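Here is the promised in-class demo. Please do not try to memorize the tokens; focus on the logic of going from shape to residues.
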């Protein structure tokens, strides 16, 4: 007979990560920018964890939650590594980090652009409705700029898919 062990709640994992981040950041000479960026990415992942479907029978949902949990746990391990690192080694690693050229911001995938557009519209009080064949209705229309219309037209199918996913809509055609 198989036995299962209960996972720690994600809130406990995030709390542990935050404590490790604070302890690593306090150290003299710690690379704050790197640590803070890692913390922000992990906190965003934790937010995605809560938005991921809760269907335990869905392999995709279980895999997504496992990936997110691993990201947060890996980030916690990195914070603990920086917290416990000897000062001489920290100085060498910080020198290597500072010597690296700054890479340009990663290019957002169209899916992320569509999701960001939905978030932006929501913050601005713009509501969307998706009809058949991914037709999108926007209310109130007077809040849309020409730039918004161009982005919405370009990303129409992805925005519609993201909207349907966020609102848990299933359409039978």
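The designed amino acids, position by position:
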């Amino acid at each position: 007979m198989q036995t299962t062990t209960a996972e720690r709640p994600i809130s406990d994992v995030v709390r542990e990560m935050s404590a490790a981040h604070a302890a690593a950041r306090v150290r003299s000479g710690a690379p704050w920018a790197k640590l803070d960026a890692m913390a922000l990415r992990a906190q965003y992942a934790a937010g995605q964890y809560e938005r991921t479907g809760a269907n335990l029978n869905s392999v995709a949902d279980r895999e997504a939650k496992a990936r997110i949990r691993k990201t947060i746990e890996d980030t916690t391990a990195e914070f603990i590594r920086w917290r416990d690192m000897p000062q001489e080694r920290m100085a060498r690693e910080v020198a290597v980090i500072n010597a690296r050229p700054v890479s340009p911001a990663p290019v957002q995938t169209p899916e992320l652009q569509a999701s960001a557009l939905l978030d932006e519209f929501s913050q601005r009080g713009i509501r969307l409705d998706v009809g058949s064949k991914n037709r999108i209705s926007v209310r109130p229309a007077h809040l849309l700029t020409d730039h918004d219309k161009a982005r919405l037209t370009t990303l129409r199918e992805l925005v519609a898919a993201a909207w349907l996913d966020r609102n848990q809509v299933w359409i039978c055609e």
